[in-house]
Amino acid sequence: MHTALTMPAKAYARRRKQLMDMAGGDAIVIVPSAHELIRSRDTHYPFRQDSDLSYLTGFPEPDSVLVLVPGRKHGETLLFCRERDAEREAWDGPRYGPENAVAAFGLDDAYPITDLDDILPGLLEGRTRVYYHFGRDTDFDLKLIGWVNRVREMVRQGAQPPHEFLVLGHLLDELRLFKDRDELRFMQRAADISVLAHEAAMRAARPGMREYELQAEVEAVFRRFDAEPAYGSIVGAGSNACVLHYRANNAASRDGDLVLIDAGAEYRGYAADITRTFPINGRFSPAQRALHDLVGAAQAAALAQARPGLPYEAGHLAAVETLTEGLLRLGLLKGKLERNLADGSYRRFYRHKTGHWLGLDVHDVGEYRIDGESRLLEPGMVFTIEPGLYVSADDTTVEPKWRGIGIRTEDDVVIGKEGCEVLTDKLARSADEIEALMGQRRAA
Question: Is 226 considered catalytic here?
């Protein structure tokens, strides 16, 4: 896993071409980079490139803008970026500069970002449609309006300003929803690193450990394999596991607690997203095991619906039915299955959906519904399957043995031609597998 993966230049070129084909010959597409964000005073957050710009170019620097002009004779793919600057590079590291960007990223042309103001109105001229993420970046919105107005002022001289302004996500989100072969290699790498990280935490677990100590085990593995956290790692011991986006990660675990770890690596921009719940002492109590098995059954039911041609939502409905059935059987809910499903009483113990798209963003782009109907699964879609159960510590309507138990089991799945493949399949999932993995540390 120490050999770095590289995205071939032709993969980026193919995506740009697909996007230009979708946009049409009289369109222009404008994709600005992310900004550097101040953390406090003069220190910045680590820079992360805008996912769309990454997807289309792999260009890693801020203060850059990609412009696609389908059919333009003098070049269709243009990048505006920072110029080389020895003084700044001595502080912040090397830059490509326009002269190196063209060859390095397979573009037709590149210009200094300072020339954007002079050049862009001319590129807008004669184009009927502008595709851009309107409303994301107010400053850039205003610049774009200014450039369009400059073209409008030239109408008497025969200039043709664009008259349609379209949301770029409408095209680009659809492209990004379907992962190509190259992307799946990166996603498998992110998944493999994440699996090792969760194993490290389970092996290190001891009663009394603080949540952040387990977080350190996980994130050390991410860094060891040239990845970083795809999102803030969640480590919740005991009833902290019932807080869905638990952030504090500073409590001590107690003997007999379950620990929920929701953590995934980001490798070269691509995210994995795994959750496992395990006993800090290596052994599930009967009540913990009963709920853990139920979540496992719900996940298996959802996984059985991960096939091309089935609605995306079928997995969630299957998980909900399995969970509700089990909650009735264990006595946490009362009454008939149909009635409980109809009135959504399971929501007390299961508040979230069973998954989300996954890719360059951990909650990735793409429509879940088309014309009000759940969309059908197709090869190349990647998503999580993550049912859970959360019993509040002060829920007096259930027996004491269930209170304060929070469990989620989450894996990453890619739809294939026939069924699906679980990218995170190597990680222990059932109570028996988890106990066996944790038992290895005692033997050692």
Answer: no
